[in-house]
Design goal:
Layout: E1 6-8, H1 9-16, H2 20-29, E2 35-37, E3 40-44, H3 48-60, H4 65-96
Antiparallel strand pairs: 1-3, 2-3
Keywords: Coiled coil
Protein name: MerR family transcriptional regulator
Coiled coil: 71-98
Amino acid sequence: MAKDELFPVVRLCELYNLEAAFFEELGEFGMIDLRIYRGERCIHQDALQKVEKIIRIHRDLHVNLEGIDVVMNMLRRQEELEERILRLNNRLRRYEDPF
């Protein structure tokens, strides 16, 4: 994996004024995938948006890690349901549209 695809946890700690232990706990909860690149803990750049969402929930709503896990699961489920509704509406539209 290329270095440019990874974002160092140390940099996240600096940007968000958080301890590295916070990200370690997120990894233990399975909310993020921590990787080691040349002895440095990193996350994949694709996970940055999710990490920022987790940080906002933690800071703005003062939710602990267990609560964040619940919220993230609920948000994921909501997105899945919205996608399913969209697919079903598209299928239904095929039967309603005249030729």
